[in-house]
Amino acid sequence: MATYVNNLRLKEITTGDEDGTWGTSTNTNLELIADALGYNTQAAFGSDGDATTTVADGAADPARALYFKVTSGATLTATRTLTIAPNTVSRVMFIENATTGSQSINISQGSGANVTIASGKTALVYLDGAGSGAAVVLASPQVAVTQLTDVTSSASELNLVDGSAADTVVNSKAVIYGSAGQIVANELDVDNIQIDANAVKSTDTNGNIQLFPNGTGFTELYGNTNAGAVRFNCENNSHGVTLKGPPHSAGATYSLELPNAVGSTGQFLKASDGSGKLAFDTVVQYSAPQLKSGNYTAAVGEFIVASAGSITITLPASPSAGDYVTIKDGTGAAETTNFTVGRNSSNIASSASDLTFDKNFAEITLVYINGTIGWSV
């Protein structure tokens, strides 16, 4: 009695049987072997449910083909399982999911592992034929297109798309190729940062761009034909202000450290010491010029223009260290008479003579030092 226990379910003729018909059975077996090396298709899902297809014993059957295209006679609404029987068949197959409904299908043989094939995709699998516990195994993950969402190509490029928009790289996704065959055609989008040509942009509304050095490291701008520079443009980017490093010829390396507090109105930044630290200081504001042609007692901070000779300008009576008075010749002539600047006895601990200046001097500023030294030019 003939049996069908091999992996292709071919008729195995018992010795002495098939007298006169042995040739017909042998030819059928050869045709079935040829079918097993070819392509075939079957509407394996006759309804919207799981299904079983059985490789026929000694007769033509679509599921025997090396490349097996699975279709459906109904629209699938969920992932369905196709069991390939018998569970003792061990073989390699290419299986294509061509069912309608855009659903994945599971390929099963027994209670062992299954392989899921996405809609429109093809997988290379092998059936281990282990009986009731038989498993279906993905034979080559590199070949199985179930690992990708989409692959497109033309004569000159290969585009990989992994569930994201073209020309982008998305967290946990594959590298995306642009239409020009580059990693990206025009720009690279990573989270909220966009790199486009030589521009780095934030795509968040009013978003910041942050640079994070490590430890004591710093953000460094390299020079090229010129020293490194930062430019602050206007909102139309038509003009701006540039901060530029010293030239190479200067051999200069130093730091400018901003103050740790905001200055008040009317203050300016100055270098407070030789370490490069900046500090706020008050702007010295001169009072309006005082035009004097006779003796006059000055006030702290006054700017006095003497328009006549032989006058005495007396300095303030109760100054503090750093107070000043500025005096200028305002006659316009080199006269022989003198200006006398009265020290005022209360300005100094001991009596001192007044200061006398020729009238052809340009301008002097006297600064009060302390009670012992008094005023100094």
Question: Which features would summarize this protein structure in a list?
Answer:
377 residues, mainly beta, Jelly Rolls, five-stranded mixed beta sheet, 1 helix, rod-shaped
Quick rundown:
The protein has 377 residues and is mainly beta.
How does this structure look, described?
- The chain is mainly beta.
- It folds into 3 domains: 22-147, no CATH class; 150-202, no CATH class; 290-376, Jelly Rolls (Sandwich).
- It contains 1 helix and 27 strands.
- It has one helix at 22-36; strands spanning 39-45, 51-54, 67-72, 80-85, 90-97, 105-108, 115-117, 122-128, 136-138, 150-153, 158-161, 187-190, 193-196, 199-202, 229-233, 240-244, 267-271, 278-282, 290-292, 296-297, 303-306, 312-314, 324-329, 338-342, 355-358, 363-370, 374-376.
- The strands form 8 sheets. A 5-stranded mixed sheet has the order 1-3-5-8-9, with no helix packed on it.
- Strand 15 (229-233) and strand 16 (240-244) form a beta hairpin.
- The radius of gyration is 49 Å and the shape is rod-shaped.
- The termini are far apart.
- The relative contact order is 0.05.
Strands, helices and their partners?
Blueprint (H helix, E strand, L loop, with lengths): L21 H15 L2 E7 L5 E4 L12 E6 L7 E6 L4 E8 L7 E4 L6 E3 L4 E7 L7 E3 L11 E4 L4 E4 L25 E4 L2 E4 L2 E4 L26 E5 L6 E5 L22 E5 L6 E5 L7 E3 L3 E2 L5 E4 L5 E3 L9 E6 L8 E5 L12 E4 L4 E8 L3 E3 L1
Parallel strand pairs: 1-3, 2-4, 3-5, 4-6, 19-21, 20-22, 21-23, 22-24
Antiparallel strand pairs: 5-8, 6-7, 8-9, 10-11, 12-13, 13-14, 15-16, 17-18, 23-26, 24-25, 26-27
